[in-house]
Amino acid sequence: MTLLVVGINYANAPVSIRERLAYPAEILHSSLQELRRLKNVTEAAILSTCNRTEFYCSAAIPNQQELIAWVSENKNISSQEFVPYLYSYTDSAFIRHILRVACGLDSMILGEPQILGQMKTAYQAACDAGTLGKPLGKLFQHTFSAAKKVRTDTAIGASPVSVAFAAVQLAQQIFDKLGDQTALLIGAGETIELTARHLSRQGIGRIIIANRTYGKAHSLAALFNGYAISLSELPNHLAEADIVISSTASQLPILGKGRVESALKKRKHKPIFMVDLAVPRDIEAEVEQLQDVYLYTIDDLQHTIDQNMNSRREAAQQAEEIIDTQVDHFMAWLRAQEAQSTIRDYRKQAEQQRDEALQKALALLKNGIPAEAALERLAHTLTNKLMHTPSTQIRLAAENERQDLIAAIHEIFKLDKAQ
């Protein structure tokens, strides 16, 4: 049995290829079962995200070409189009790879935690499809435990490395309790959605989302129990905001000094924390001159992000050491499983020889042979049967100067050397 992974990711495949090899939830179940039916595949799981698609298999024979041919047919794409971007690992290299992926060490953003949840989703999908067996199922469980250990024992995820998270962390440093604050988010793109998600998790009191297209603002606000407004309504709501975070694609500033000054008067100069994540800027630079305004730009946050990324790189080195140990542990488990099959075969052979000897002894008893003589014959026959094959192999080992085999036999059977 061999463990095999074949995949592509953001580092070596363009999005035009990645999107064609993606496996959305609605086709994952049937695709897993098709993959499992391949001649050499005994177990299968598929991890599919926007940044990677990976096929995890255990196989009697690691036939990468069989898997590639299936992907080509399944996704209706010529193998020549995606094979140049593929990577493949087996056994210990595969184990190291899946551990690194789950820990965020192979992610576009080092140490990002979302991939572990996506890995758990892939595991559950394979369980539901009935395509996991003992080795691959055990590897997933081992992977989840190792990822938890890395998160617990290192600072791989402790420092924010996205501008959205850094902005929210900075807000937490300025305000004692976010639960008492109102956040006004300008824009409705990915960065603002991520900011809203972080604020919501930190217990922000109220969220207002402003966008040029009201429908987009409303859809996003509904996810976080927020309130949506159009950009034209900003002057009426700016004074309500303790936190303003903006990220739009506007080519001109959305908030000018005069508008912010008017809001401060309505607030009786209660401070406003503002973060401009847009390039070009959404908030005029002159706003920084106003008292009671704490204005930060994406450049201000970048220094924090760079420091945090360095911190993650240091933590990643510690994580790699943990992964080295975890790979060794799982390989030891795999070797033990292989030994189990040998033990089963040996036991089966011995039980068969025992049964044959017992039947002969019972036949002797039926023919009137005394019980003591029948037992002696049973012991003699069974001993000869159990020793015949090993004795023959030991003689052959000696003839072929295989001292390693003879030494192994001494160790396995705990034999005392003849005096």
Strand content: 5-15%
Structural class of the helices, strands and pairings?
alpha/beta
CATH class (first level) name of the largest domain: Alpha Beta
CATH fold-level name of the largest domain: Beta Polymerase, domain 2
Instruction: Please give the order of strands in the largest beta sheet.
Output: 7-6-5-8-9-10
Mean pLDDT: 91
Distance between the termini: 43 Å
What is the CATH architecture annotation of the largest domain?
Answer: 2-Layer Sandwich
- Main β-sheet, in a few words? 6 strands, parallel
User: At the fourth CATH level, what is the homologous superfamily of the largest domain?
Assistant: Glutamyl-tRNA reductase, N-terminal domain
- Any idea how many domains? 3
- Beta strands, count: 10
Q: Assign a percent range to the helix content.
A: 55-70%
- Secondary-structure element string: EHHEEHHEHHHHEHEHEHEHEEHHH
Q: Label the overall shape.
A: elongated
Poorly predicted runs: none
- The DSSP helix count reads 15
The whole-angstrom Rg is 33 Å
Give the SSE map.
Elements: E1 2-9, H1 15-18, H2 25-36, E2 41-48, E3 52-59, H3 64-74, H4 79-82, E4 87-90, H5 91-102, H6 114-129, H7 134-153, H8 163-174, E5 182-186, H9 190-201, E6 206-211, H10 214-223, E7 227-230, H11 234-237, E8 243-246, H12 257-266, E9 272-276, E10 293-297, H13 298-366, H14 371-399, H15 403-412
Parallel strand pairs: 5-6, 5-8, 6-7, 8-9, 9-10
Antiparallel strand pairs: 1-3, 1-4, 2-3
Helix pairs in contact: 2-6, 5-7, 5-13, 6-7, 7-13, 8-9, 13-14
